[in-house]
Amino acid sequence: MPPETDISRRRRISAPKSSAMASSCSLITIWCFLLAFVCPVPSAAVPAVNRTRNQWITAHLKRVNKPAVKMIKAVPSPDGDVIDCVPSHLQPAFDHPKLRGQKPLDPPERPRGYNRSSAANDVKLQAWTISGESCPEGTVPIRRTTPGDVLRASSLRLFGRKPAGVRLRRDSTSSGHEHAVGYAMGDQYYGAKASLSVWAPRVTIGSEFSLSQIWVISGSFGNDLNTIEAGWQVSPQLYGDGRPRFFTYWTTDAYQETGCYNLLCSGFVQTNNKIAIGAAISPTSALNAGQFDIDLLVWKDPKHGHWWLEFGPGLLVGYWPTFLFSHLAEHANMVQFGGEIVNTQSSGFHTSTQMGSGHFAEEGFRRAAYFRNLQLVDWDNSLIPLANLRLLADHPNCYSIQGGVNRVWGNYFYYGGPGRNVRCP
């Protein structure tokens, strides 16, 4: 059980086959432009393929990197990100036909029972803001996408997206994705809120990741699955490093053709000039030392039907327009909180990629990662305690979960683990 006093000490913020591939390369398809270095192409054709590949990469970067009125190089920060301050109406969302020519909406009414922190405008939650940087009013901070970011992807089509075949079914055969989650299902949900600790788990290879997030889910677990996702993740393939970064995701067809991470496609509309989606979170929790957590709130605006996201103590980040979705245009029928990793078994055995802090739930406070103060948003736009929380770990010998309820933390759980160990071969 976590201690029931001294909350301020726990938080530092107030508040293909080769022949087929050769054929593809002879046709010089977009997919092989990015994979030319693994395609069996005649040596004389390599320069031409590389030139064309680079042209497609350049064109793609022009689409995702919008003209900025200000560029911020995070020199004091070890992440080395470049943040572009892009006029709000020019951000990627407004490339969507249904948003073209529009501007971001005004903030909606927050759910009843939620107290916004008075420190929201002064708090520093990301590495690029440590020196006091922010973007001007009327702009949004966007992490600049680099050629390296694109080249790390398995293909241009999959850049910024989860691979098709990812499922949220809770079984041991789910495409190498393993979870330790708390969830509620079977009712109509209009949002979710929680505080989650931030760590920097070790990810073994670039094609794996480790994350901690909230899922807001609707539809069946077939091709019509709708999800809204937000939290922090360590993803070397997506970001090129091992730092925990604030991220968002959405899909309306079970990750097949729609949706993306962050602002890498048209969809999520950002309204905040102080938070960069995809940027590193700072500080992080330390083993047997200070614990740092962030608040996340996702809720459906009852007036317009859009799904809004709040990060940290009252920082409204933006919204997913309701037209992006089918089932979530109405409501969610499942909410999940917790951790996820990818286990590629690249060496023939279970990955050593860590979840959470890399320590099991049973180790408790200051050692295991946690979610606390789990709440739901009901039909009346009110925050309510989460009752009947169900806990599930796909592989408890690799990553475990353990929950409870108390006066200070409300509904909470610890989760995570080291991956491969004597009980998880």
TrEMBL record:
Coiled-coil blocks: none
Pfam family, one: Neprosin_AP
Region Disordered, annotated ranges: 93-118
Entry protein name: Neprosin PEP catalytic domain-containing protein
Domain Neprosin PEP catalytic: 171-425
Species of origin: Zingiber officinale (Ginger)
